[in-house]
Amino acid sequence: MIRYLTAGESHGPELTGIVEGLPAGLDISAEAVSLHLARRQQGYGRGGRMAWEKDLVRFSSGLRFGKTMGSPVTMSLANRAWEKDAANWPVTMSLSAIEDEASVEKITLPRPGHADLVGVQKYAFDDIRPVIERSSARETSMRVACCGTARLFLKALGVEIGGHVLQIGAHGYESWEEIREIADEAAQSGGEALFQKADESEVRCLHPELTARMVDEIKHYRKAGSSLGGIYEIVVTGLPPGLGSYVQWDRKLDGQLAQAIMSTQAMKGVQIGMGFEAGKRDGRRVHDAITKDQNIPGGFGRKTNRAGGIEGGMTTGQPVLIQGVMKPIPTMLDPLGTVDIATKEPAPTRYERSDVCALPRAVVVAESVIAPVLANAILEKTGGDSMSEILPRFQNLF
Ligand SMILES: Cc1cc2nc3c(=O)[nH]c(=O)nc-3n(C[C@H](O)[C@H](O)[C@H](O)COP(=O)(O)O)c2cc1C
Ligand SMILES: C=C(O[C@@H]1CC(C(=O)O)=C[C@@H](OP(=O)(O)O)[C@H]1O)C(=O)O
């Protein structure tokens, strides 16, 4: 089973990750993983830092001649901020004791919507800085790197993941059917083709006219000193039927996927397939008629895929469709009210450099975090410690 841990602060020297449980004999390169790191840095609405950070993963264990050995894979990512602002961060975030600690400014104005206030209450800090450093979505860069290895495992089996934006602020698709028309076409040759097409849009939206409206919406709220979130969809192609299980609550694949998405900063909801829309329709306009289909392993297809490729906590063999909603960025130029944790006096919030809308970037994070869940569902079915053992078993599942 694949599991991973990340470590590192947003303005510390580097982020570190360890991935355990990758089978032996899997091809992994820094370039293949860094592709998604670069994608995560792109998107209209991003803040200043994403223009100059250069996220390139560096492996330090678990690989030999570009292949896994079954041992833990360790990796790191440098924070350019540490070197770029060398007079500040190596002092403010010094790992060892410093003589003049009192000269380092304390952050005492918590931002509503961020982890600031509850973080200082929980860990008994009189300074918000340590909370900012670890709750920051800077951590998602290492998550994308760690999960990137699981993505390569999936790709070796023909399983591809791609994401696209559905809604930003007031602008989005009119209906489930409209989404399907455009997204199913883009994913016809696989999830990667879908993300490549979505990446052509500044906001990762497959619809050119909506792209323009979403960009204008972000411009508008940036000018107004506010921020935006939105809704995205992740499409996974190439999964056989029968991954996951209905027999026990913690083996249901939809539950595991939802947890992966909800564990990501700023995510406030998940739906599988048409999700909430299913509650507004009668059964005949929700359930997917079963058809004979020789192109699908097992020989059964579906007329539609409103269930999003999962029934009874198991894959159906149709593409897995997951939607996620991201709240607007908490750090805003136009201040909201707060209370100073030192003086206990009401005050306006303080502004730090920030994304205005990070949804297009977050799509890459969502694509990534589901990869270990899916990889584990496959490994549970096939077993095996090496790619040479797993590949034929996967191909012979049906
Ligand atoms: C890719 C990405 C980028 C983000 N960028 C920012 C940012 O620049 N400023 C900010 O205040 N919050 C940003 N956030 C959101 C915060 O990290 C998040 O709201 C915070 O960690 C609190 O967690 P919660 O929203 O899950 O409660 C970003 C989130 C993601 C996924
Ligand atoms: C650094 C990243 O995102 C950061 C996420 C983030 C937050 O509060 O979550 C706040 C900002 O940090 P900074 O003030 O250092 O610019 C973002 O830039 C990243 O995605 O790599």
From TrEMBL:
UniProt enzyme class: lyase
Any Pfam family the entry gives: Chorismate_synt
Binding, FMN: 134-136, 265-266, 312, 327-331, 353
Binding site for NADP(+): 40, 46
Keyword Flavoprotein set for record: yes
GO biological process, one term: chorismate biosynthetic process
UniProt keyword annotations, A-Z: Amino-acid biosynthesis, Aromatic amino acid biosynthesis, FAD, Flavoprotein, FMN, Lyase, NADP
Region ranges (Disordered): 292-312
Cofactor entry: FMNH2
Keyword hit for Flavoprotein: yes
Superkingdom of the organism of origin: Bacteria
Pathway: Metabolic intermediate biosynthesis; chorismate biosynthesis; chorismate from D-erythrose 4-phosphate and phosphoenolpyruvate: step 7/7
GO cellular component, one term: cytosol
Catalyzed reactions per annotation: 5-O-(1-carboxyvinyl)-3-phosphoshikimate = chorismate + phosphate
InterPro entries: Chorismate_synth, Chorismate_synth_AroC_sf, Chorismate_synthase_CS
Record EC number: 4.2.3.5
Cofactor: record remark: Reduced FMN (FMNH(2)).
Family: Belongs to the chorismate synthase family.
Self-association and partners: Homotetramer.
Functional note: This reaction introduces a second double bond into the aromatic ring system.
PANTHER family per record: CHORISMATE SYNTHASE
NCBIfam families per record: aroC (TIGR00033), PRK05382.1 (NF003793)
Protein name per the record: Chorismate synthase
Source organism (scientific name): Cyclonatronum proteinivorum
Encoding gene, per UniProt annotation: aroC
